[in-house]
Design a protein that fits this description.
single chain; alpha/beta; Rossmann fold; Zinc Finger, Delta Prime, domain 3; five-stranded parallel sheet
Length: about 375
């Protein structure tokens, strides 16, 4: 990342960027910090006191947009738990920024003309905006009971907003709104558009994005973030400066778990396991879904049709497949296991190579397993 830091300092960074790498490799954090550095009115140091830097630290910078599908609830739940047990300014910042990442996706500009899809979100939005005021470091935190009540409200409102987000990537109308905002807003301040999981865009929003990337407005930067670089169209790639993010080493992940999250050394394999374990509402759900899947193989109807959005969240697809492996090992005889594990390997490969949607892959796995008569081999 030395090249990135140098280009930020020299103000030579191109306007269209691709940050690609595995989950939990700090792509979004780096994009946010890069944006802060590019808009800093002074030296760009982390402790800079200029207005732009202060606003960036709390994600209050008005010329920053964040779009894209992402499960933010785990980070919010972790932040709430940390603040409950460690009433410090770094914990305030962690939770505040986690919630602001969600709220940025509800920028009124992005939903202009499509407000009907926000039905039922005005209450949670208002609740979060009021409750977040207490989290700013200059404010005094409530006493224990009051803090617990505050954190419960934040978690509940965040869940309601998360459920209202699009489940199929970035809609074309949001790309158009962000593009119009980038072209017509004349604040004089640098503008930034961050698109998470950019690989999940359908053809029409990709084409709409391509138009503005061909001639990006001055003093505006676009960051596309993805864990599936191969799924980004070549026409988009040709207009992006790519920066590759490596998977953090085991030692780096354990260090982060200990220093930032106060995790006991060795309690979790890595960051993915830690974040997955934090989502308490999912405990036991993967085993239940795997059981439904295997039991239904003797029936003609796919049993998990209602979970399309669920599979799109980070790690849910991976953990569900792991639950299928564990249950198949106990439910199927050796011959059936061998064939089923071959199908699972194909599913993982098709996901990694072609970036096919997890909901489609799981449904396809079900019907292919039925066609292979795997259920009849169960002991």
């Amino acid at each position: 990342m030395s090249n990135l830091s140098r280009e930020v300092a020299q103000r030579t960074l191109p306007a269209s960027l691709l940050f690609h790498g595995p989950h939990y490799s700090a792509k979004l954090t780096t994009a946010l910090e890069t944006s802060r550095g590019l808009s800093c009115a002074k030296s760009g140091d982390w402790n800079c006191t200029c207005d732009h830097c202060r606003n960036h630290r709390t994600l209050d910078y008005p010329w920053l947009m964040i779009l894209g599908q992402k499960n933010l609830l785990a980070e919010i739940e972790i932040g709430a738990s940390l603040l409950e047990h460690h009433r410090t300014d770094p914990r305030r910042f962690f939770l505040l920024r986690a919630v602001k990442k969600l709220l940025k996706r509800f920028d009124p500009i992005l939903w202009e003309g499509d407000e009907a899809k926000l039905k039922g979100t005005s209450g949670p939005l208002s609740s979060l905006q009021d409750d977040l005021e207490v989290l700013y470091p200059a404010q005094k935190l409530p006493e224990e009971k009051g803090l617990i009540s505050l954190l419960e409200r934040i978690s509940s409102a965040s869940k309601a907003l998360s459920d209202a987000l699009p489940s199929t990537g970035i809609p074309i109308h949001q790309i158009r709104k962000a593009s119009a905002w980038a072209r017509t807003t004349t604040s004089g301040a640098p503008k930034f558009v961050l698109l998470e999981n950019a690989d999940k865009m359908a053809e029409s929003p990709r084409n709409a994005l391509l138009k503005i990337l061909e001639e990006p407005p001055s003093n505006t930067w676009f960051f596309l973030l993805t864990s599936q670089k191969g799924a980004i169209l070549p026409t988009l790639l040709s207009r992006l400066r790519a920066f590759s993010f490596a998977q953090r080493t085991t030692e780096e992940q354990q260090s982060i778990l200990g220093t930032l999250f106060h995790s006991t050394p060795g309690s979790y394999v890595g960051l993915a396991d830690y974040f997955q374990a934090s989502e308490t509402h999912k405990k036991g759900l993967y085993d239940e879904l795997a059981s439904q899947f295997l039991e239904a193989l003797g029936q003609p109807i796919y049993p998990l049709e209602a979970y399309g959005k669920f599979w799109s969240e980070e790690d849910n697809f991976r953990v569900f497949l792991e639950a299928l492996v564990a249950q198949a090992d106990a439910r199927l005889d050796l011959t059936a296991q061998e064939r089923f594990f071959e199908l699972l390997t194909e599913v993982r490969g098709r996901r990694d190579t072609y970036n096919l949607g997890p909901a489609l892959l799981i449904e396809t796995l079900f019907y292919r397993a039925r066609a292979a008569d795997i259920s009849s081999r169960a002991p």
